[in-house]
């Protein structure tokens, strides 16, 4: 049992009104892999430059992330920098340098191709589709996406939606994808585009899971201090898919729990910059917060 | 066992991109009373003009609302008109004519003064305080408020907050009251202003209940078509307080259920204009939707 994860691996520089950190580990595949590692072994597919710090390779390995699918190319690693306002829902991208990522063509090592469970982290739908063509017998495919692809790559995204089992995206992206102001209508409309399940992430408002005859509303963990929201969505997707992989079940009950595990790991991640918090996180911490989610959303004791 | 409710009684004219209705029953006390009537008898305190339609008096009576505290003054009933955009979260007030409400001084009939449970619907904090001075032995007082009073009547509002047990207000009002962007920090800060409990209504995102050592997150009912959001907050407050009155318990468990009952009745109310939907609503409908709330927020079956 293992999970294949692809996406970006980046060195991020992030500024908040309180702190600033440079060239720390970031990227959708990095966050998703470490988050998923609390539940399952991970096969990572990605690219880094020759400047990628060895300490981050060690971090992946310590978390049981297989790096056979990690390509190291001559040149610099993908870099992103962004700034948050006091209201951490508001982020401004300061710079994006694709570097070695510009020519990335994900290539799956032969022994990765039979991995049954797949998380296509947030990269272009063209690259996500390219990964799918190399798979032998995928059982459950989760994909994340973002506003950039909704606006600039609608056709490949539409093709992708027909081939995946579950789409994870945020509130404004869901509304934008199907041009609906009502989030409920938006969720139901996205189901008609292909995926059997849709998860809409609403940040501080929790998230919604849609399926045929399925609606689940999950709360957000009530954090008073958020240090760095970067990667929360990727951690959600990683832990969500990681949990599903660990139980090898994709029914509504498993999906509901997966949504909570995704929320739990994401809520830990935003407590400090980059992946710092997840490095000391234990499975026991995860289980304890899972129980807190239960306590704060249960209203009728049995 | 009964519940005293005060607030405004109005004739509303509401326009949405789809429909338009004139001079229909509205006002915080009207919505709250009918919503509470599914759980408890109500003693209404309010004022109407001599033009107030008899059919609405009959509607109150049919729902077990005692009108001994309803003053009929020479002149016109309070009128409000507003318009919603396609995104029903966005409302514009077109006109407010206070009419007889301008000189309203709530006077409690002698036999109302011992009512133990109180809902101070959304009117000025000065009027809400004036009601409190006339009570003999209130056991649990819930108050609603709005941005207008937060901006223009901070001092009486601060005084009120020290005298009530539970404040109900919406998301932007909570942030504005204590000047916090984080809703979690805002909720906790409001507790320090006096009330033992705070309910923050988030519209399509559900609501949050705060107390000392208490945090509860309730989902919103996933309505695809909202016909008229007017009065949703008042229905929430009415059903919330009505349920608490009916069980005569104010502990965290009762409060959690009350939040769900508030959400249930509010979700029915927005299904049509004015109080139309509540007129045909049955207690059985309420209980059924309560169970649906449970199904859509429960993630671990026992």
How would you describe this structure to a colleague?
2 copies of one chain form a homodimer. The first copy, chain A, is α/β, with parallel strands linked by helices and 302 residues long. In chain A, 37% of the residues lie in helices and 25% in strands. Chain A has a 9-stranded mixed β-sheet, with helices on both faces. Chain A has a 4-stranded mixed β-sheet with strand order 3-2-6-7. In chain A, β11 and β12 form a beta hairpin. In chain A, 50% of the residues are buried. The mean pLDDT of chain A is 95.
Q: What are the defining features of this structure?
A:
302 residues, homodimer, 11 helices, nine-stranded mixed β-sheet, 25% strand, alpha/beta, 13 strands, four-stranded mixed β-sheet
What is this entry, summarized?
By secondary structure, chain A is of the alpha/beta class.
| Unreliably modeled segments of chain A | none
Distance between the termini of chain A: 35 Å
Secondary-structure content class of chain A: alpha/beta
Shape of chain A: globular
Radius of gyration of chain A: 18 Å
In spatial order, strands of the major sheet of chain A run 5-4-1-8-9-10-11-12-13
| Greatest interface and its participating residue counts | A-B, 38 and 38 residues
| Helix-strand pattern of chain A | EEEHEHEEEEHEHHEHHEEEHHHH
Q: What is the count of β-strands of chain A?
A: 13
Query: How can the largest sheet of chain A be summarized?
Result: 9 strands, mixed
Mean pLDDT of chain A: 95
Query: How would you describe the oligomerization state of the chains in this entry?
Result: homodimer
Number of DSSP helical runs of chain A: 11
The percent range for helix content of chain A is 25-40%
């Amino acid at each position: 049992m293992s999970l294949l994860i692809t996406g970006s691996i980046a060195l991020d520089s992030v500024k908040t009104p309180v702190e600033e950190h440079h060239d720390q580990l970031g990227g959708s595949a990095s966050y998703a892999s470490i988050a998923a590692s609390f539940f399952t072994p991970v096969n990572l597919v990605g690219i880094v430059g020759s400047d990628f710090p060895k300490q981050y390779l060690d971090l992946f390995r310590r978390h049981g992330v297989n790096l056979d699918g990690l390509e190291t190319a001559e040149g610099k690693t993908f870099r992103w920098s962004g700034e948050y306002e006091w209201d951490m829902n508001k982020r401004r991208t300061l710079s994006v340098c694709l570097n070695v990522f510009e020519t990335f063509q994900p290539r799956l090592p032969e022994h990765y191709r039979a991995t049954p469970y797949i998380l296509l982290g947030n990269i272009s739908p063209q690259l996500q589709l390219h990964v799918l063509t190399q798979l032998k017998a995928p059982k459950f495919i989760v994909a994340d996406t973002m506003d950039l692809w909704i606006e600039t790559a609608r056709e490949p995204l539409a093709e992708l939606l027909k081939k995946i089992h579950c789409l994870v995206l945020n509130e404004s992206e869901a509304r934008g994808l199907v041009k609906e102001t009502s989030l409920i209508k938006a969720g139901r409309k996205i189901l008609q585009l292909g995926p059997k399940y849709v998860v809409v992430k609403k940040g501080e408002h929790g998230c919604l899971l849609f399926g045929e005859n399925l609606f689940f509303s999950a709360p957000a963990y009530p954090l008073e201090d958020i240090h760095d929201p970067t990667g929360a969505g990727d951690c959600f997707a990683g832990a969500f898919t990681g949990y599903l992989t660990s139980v090898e079940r994709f029914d509504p009950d498993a999906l509901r729990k997966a949504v909570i595990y995704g929320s739990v790991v994401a809520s830990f991640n935003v407590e400090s910059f980059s992946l710092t918090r997840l490095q000391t996180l234990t499975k026991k911490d995860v289980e304890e917060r899972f129980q807190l989610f239960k306590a704060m959303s249960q209203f009728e004791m049995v």
